[in-house]
Amino acid sequence: MSKEEIKELILDGNRIHDIPSFYDEVNRVFMQEVGFTLGPSLDAFNDVLHGGYGAIRGNEPICLKWLHFEKNKEDLGVAATIAFYRAKLEQPETFNPEWARKKLDELECGEGQTYMDMLLEIIGEHPNIRLVV
């Protein structure tokens, strides 16, 4: 496959400082041509990477460049992930509190995934997307 056939998308990590700003940047990069935006959801992020709407058309090859990635590893690291799970615990009518408590406990023991880890896992599930940091 020639380089000309690979679409390049660039996440600017200087625009990302927490989970909500990550989704602001995802919407800026992936959703420009669409009449709606993604909410702050890992499922929504996964859906946009599947393509069919937004910047990705089906399984086309994508080079996803993530600028300032090391900074964002901290921005979306342990502290942000703890806040993410604590927010889930405050909404037991919407989210499973046992699940959130388990994930929070794992993270506080140094064993759980950070939000960045979860994002990287999702990106890795899409063989047509090559992440460049």
From TrEMBL:
Q: Which Pfam families match?
A: Barstar
| The organism's place on the tree of life at top rank | Bacteria
Question: Which InterPro entries would you find in this protein's record?
Answer: Barstar, Barstar-like_sf
Which Gene3D superfamilies does the UniProt record give? Barstar-like
* Domain Barstar (barnase inhibitor), residue spans: 8-79
Protein family according to the UniProt entry: Belongs to the barstar family.
The protein in question is named Barstar (barnase inhibitor) domain-containing protein
To which species is this protein native? Answer: Parapedobacter pyrenivorans
The upper taxonomy is:
Bacteria, Pseudomonadati, Bacteroidota, Sphingobacteriia, Sphingobacteriales
